[in-house]
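ping. complex inputs:
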Amino acid sequence: MEQVGSSGLVVDTIGAISRHIREKDLMPGDRLPSEAILSKELNVSRTVVREAFRSLAAMRIIELATGKRATVAQIDHGAMSLMIEHGVHTDQINIQQIYDVRRTIETRIVALAAIRRSDAEAAEILSLAAQMLECADNPAALLEHDLAFHTTLARASRNPVYSLLIGAFQGIIRQTWPIGWKSRPTQASRDLMLATHQDIARAVAAGDPQQAVDAMAQHFDESVRALLAAGMS
Amino acid sequence: MEQVGSSGLVVDTIGAISRHIREKDLMPGDRLPSEAILSKELNVSRTVVREAFRSLAAMRIIELATGKRATVAQIDHGAMSLMIEHGVHTDQINIQQIYDVRRTIETRIVALAAIRRSDAEAAEILSLAAQMLECADNPAALLEHDLAFHTTLARASRNPVYSLLIGAFQGIIRQTWPIGWKSRPTQASRDLMLATHQDIARAVAAGDPQQAVDAMAQHFDESVRALLAAGMS
DNA sequence: CAAGCCAAACCTGTCTGACAGGTTGAGGGG
DNA sequence: CCCCTCAACCTGTCAGACAGGTTTGGCTTG
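pong. complex structure:
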């Protein structure tokens, strides 16, 4: 390979593989050529092709598995999640900034979900909110149900980009949620949060966007207040 | 290395390096151990370390350069941009869905920008809107100024996550913007778009969030209408 | 003593060849 | 017609090698 660009053979190869996917109009699940074939076609060593594959796999553009050929991947929030976590761990992003973004997009999500949710999704959302009540004294379970609640709402919005973004925040939420929970010391404050989730669920199930938006806004107002009280400024 | 996980040595090594960054509290710019040292410490071959490095570099968590040691990277939208493009090219995401998300976050961005923009940013935003008028008949230049306009607004919001997201959409916007522009056949419709940008700029410069939000909402209403007229449903 | 230069040590990029183990598909047996 | 098996194929990992680019510490020079 002639090293068309100036950034090295691996970068060029990543470009060549991406182009291959576009030009051949490959869809998720479709198989890519084997490493050996690609290295022959592009005139690079298998080492280079493998590093290019790893790069694309890191971005979840392709999927690798032992023995099998690489396949085109479905969009997935795993990589974004790691990027966001990295940003937070290196003090480039703080939790409040994440909450502002979440508030912004989740407010829109519930509006869409209230309009577009299927009946099955409505039931699932109501069920998750109810389950949160039942495990109110089990923080780990509560966290998981909370995440599932917001993830399901995103799915009900029928816009995969919202699902992607909510998923991207999941990793860092998992790591910081306990802070917010501990900062709700009184039973009343914890009950309020659970009640708010139920308000959101009911509004979405009832197909009332305005009420859903109001409830979600209230949810985030509480959360941010709790976070600030915990000294996360 | 004992292959602690079940997904292969490379995945384990990625985890080990990420952990190293967190535990040592490395900040952007800090240098990581060399490939040779890591391969010795983790008991894996240099091949494995290199593939792990490539994966982390693909997510812009670290930065590689020939001869130099790998360094911790600053957050960057490049990887997200590729992921979004992949989603669109493989029909997992469509352009309207992107516009809905953009509308949602950019409305919030201008509200924040109106409150938090520096005087220099206000001047820059006004200038970019003015420049758009000047090259109204040069689509390529217009596109670049448009992107710069929205990017600057995101920066003025003082929330790096918004900058990240706006950056993530840049790649796909660049590829689809001409469609929207061609779908504004009349001079009046094009003038309207340029005028709307100026409205946004003026509202942000004036520090008027509500007016900025209204103008941005109008901008997206127009854009989506144009897109739909172009048959992008 | 300070500023600048230089070579050796260090480091990354790429290639080759090898082998273990997982996957697949064609063809044979029931 | 279905299931099984096995050979061909493919990926994961390792070791060693060599061509450049980078760093650094000591040496030279002013």
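Chain B has a mean pLDDT of 94.
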